[in-house]
Structure formats: C-alpha cells, structure tokens
Amino acid sequence: DGEVLRRIFAEIAALHRAGSEVVVIACDAAVPRAWTYPGAPPEEVHGRGGTAFEPVMRWLHDPDVGRFDGLVYLTDGEGPAPDTRPPCPALWVVPPAGEVGEHLRFGRAVKIPPQS
After folding, report:
1. Beta partners for 108?
2. CA Rg, the chain, in Å?
C-alpha cells in the first residue's frame, strides 16, 4: 500500500544520503525497469503483485548490469523461494504485516518494526 511504499522509499533515501549509489529494481514477475536512485522517489510505482524473487537474482548475474556490493530486497515477503543465489550479500526487508520464512533464503531477513 501507499504507506509501505513511503517507508520503503524513506529507507532508500537514507541509503542514498549516506553516500551509497542505489539502484532500484522494480519487479513483480519480471524486471521491467531498473534505475539509479536520483534522490527522490518516482512519481508512480508499477507492479505490486505476482512477486517472483528469481528474476531479480538472475538479473543481478547479467554482466551488462554491473557488479553490486549488496542486495537490499524490500518486499512483502510473499513469493516463491528463489533458486539462484545472488552474486552479493542479501538482506530481505519486510514490512510489519509481511511474511518472513525459509523461502527468503540466500541472506538474512528482517522486519520493519510497526510504527507506534
């Protein structure tokens, strides 16, 4: 929902302000778009349904997209486990109502705490 997206982009903005180059990978059942975060969230976000984690893992292995120091996968956690190990350390970040489990493999999973 809109609140989760706001919080996700707040986390992305914090990484960007800390000096990290952040590449945002928009995905659901495919990777239709990826861009270097410019310091502000996009006007519109597409997807939001039918999540498959495997396309992102495969995309990261594409030599044309470059090399990454880490993957921070911001997701509701709903989707089948990926088969492909990412080429970098992975951190799964899931909102309070999201699903954390063994399917979020090849890294560590954490939940964003609920707002008080």
Report:
1. 91
2. 13
Query: For residue 81, what are the contacts with CB-CB under 8 A and spacing of at least 6?
Result: 53, 102, 103, 104, 105
What are 29-67's pLDDT values in tens digits? Answer: 888 889 999 998 888 776 656 789 999 999 999 999 999
Rounded distance between C-alpha atoms, residue 49 and residue 30, angstroms: 11
State which H helix or E strand residue 14 sits in. Answer: helix 2-17
Q: What's the number of CA atoms in the CB half-sphere (13 Å) around residue 46?
A: 9
No. of helices (H) and no. of strands (E), the chain? 2, 5
Query: Are the CB atoms for 29 and 52 separated by under 8 Å?
Result: yes
Confidence (pTM): 0.84
